[in-house]
Amino acid sequence: MTFKIIGASLSPFVRKTRAFFAEKGLDYELEPLMPFGVSDEFKAKSPLGKIPCLEHDGRALPDSSVICAYVERLHPESALYPSDPWDYAQALWHEEYADGALVGAGIPIFQGRLITRLMGKNVDEELAKKGEEGIEPFCDYLEGKLADDRKYLVGPQLTIADIATASPFVNFAHGGWEPDAGRWPKLSAYLGRIHSRPSFKALIEEEKASLPA
Question: What is the pLDDT of residue 123?
């Protein structure tokens, strides 16, 4: 019944899954895998060749959203999905908003300022700036969703909505960009709270230690 998460730690989807496990207090093994030129053996487990992929009880399950939903059913304690139907739907929406659009819009930040360096190339500021401009509407939207007294995106406690939303902003920070607290004060404070949780803090510190200075 051991859990194994397959994927690269810098992936926002792998980080999302690992943070979810940490919030659940569940142990797992991490098997590093970059999602480039993956083997046919891995594609048999994850047909789209994407990460993460979960191995559990002799079976494989791809996709971070599916993995988290599966683990929630196995371990419903410390619930990370709301019980209220409307809040549940809102949490799923925020997860899809982050996974399906926010991540992609901000990829140029990470690629332009970090991946280039990891590959021994010059930083591509033009590409990074396009990413910064691309995520501004997402920041505007999230700022509007965070009421002055709201700690989380949906309901009174942390949910999958917060884990999914906070994860790509770690990549943006690795790429040298964080929301301007003057323009997006609620979003900036919100991300500070989520990223300071032990589930995220430990992963961020682990990742920073592996990145070039």
Answer: 87
